[in-house]
Amino acid sequence: MKNICLKDLPSFIRTTDENDISLNYLIHQTERAPRASAIILNTFDTFEQAALDALSSKLPCVYTIEPLLLLADQIEGDNKLKSIGSNLWKEQPGCVEWLNSKEPHSILYVNFGNVTIMTPKQLIEFAWGLANSEKLFLWIIRPDLVVGDLAILHLEFVTETKDRAMLATWCAQEQILKHQSIGGFVTHNGWNSTLEAKNVMELKTKPEEATKHGGSSYKNIKKLITEILKV
C-alpha cells in the first residue's frame, strides 16, 4: 500500500492485544476468504490497483463495485433506488438545513463512523478540543460512541458552543459530504480517512470514471449480476 503509514490504519490493526475482538474477527474473515466463491470489495480498481492485483493472485473472483451511490445514479428513471440509503443508523433531521444557513467551506464535519468507540474521558477531551478551536462544526455522536456508557457532554460545553455547533446522532452522510459549507473533516482514521489523504481532484474524478458506462465498477457489477443469474 504505497504512501500508507501504519498510523493511517485503524487502531485495531495496531493493537498488541491478541484477544482483541475486532482483530480476531478480521483474522477469521481473512482465513475464510480463499473458500469463498467471490469477494466483493468496497473500492474501485484505479484507487488501489497494486493491492487488488495481489489479492486477485491469491483469492477467487474479486469484484470491485464502489462507489455504489454513483453507480445508482447511472440507472435512470428508478426512483426506488434513490430512496435507499447506505446508513446503518437512523438519520436525525435538521443537519442539512443547518448547513444551508452557513457560509461555503466554513464547517468542520466530525464523524467517527459506525464502529469506533471512546472512553468518557476521551469524549470530554475531544469535545473541549473542538470548543477551543472556535470553529463551526457538525459533530455526529452515536448513542453507543462511549464504551459502556451514554455519550453525554457537559452542559458547559453545550452552552459554550451552542451558537456554532450542530450535534446529531447521525445524518444523511451522502448529502453532508457533498455540501458546499463543509470545509474540513475529522474522521476515525479508517478507509474513508485514507481516501481523504489522497489528492482531492483525483478522488473526485476517478470514482466517477469507475462508475460510468464502461468503467471498472460498472463492468464489475454487470459481470457479478451475470454470474449470480447463472447459479
Automatic annotation (TrEMBL):
Q: Where are the transmembrane segments?
A: none
Asked if the keyword Transferase belongs to this entry, the reply reads yes
CDD domains found in the cross-reference section: GT1_Gtf-like
Which region is the signal sequence?
A: none
User: Pfam families, per this entry?
Assistant: UDPGT (PF00201)
InterPro entries xref list = UDP_glucos_trans
Q: Which family does it belong to?
A: Belongs to the UDP-glycosyltransferase family.
What protein name applies here? 7-deoxyloganetin glucosyltransferase
Q: Which organism is it from?
A: Quercus suber (Cork oak)
What does UniProt list as this organism's lineage? Eukaryota, Viridiplantae, Streptophyta, Embryophyta, Tracheophyta
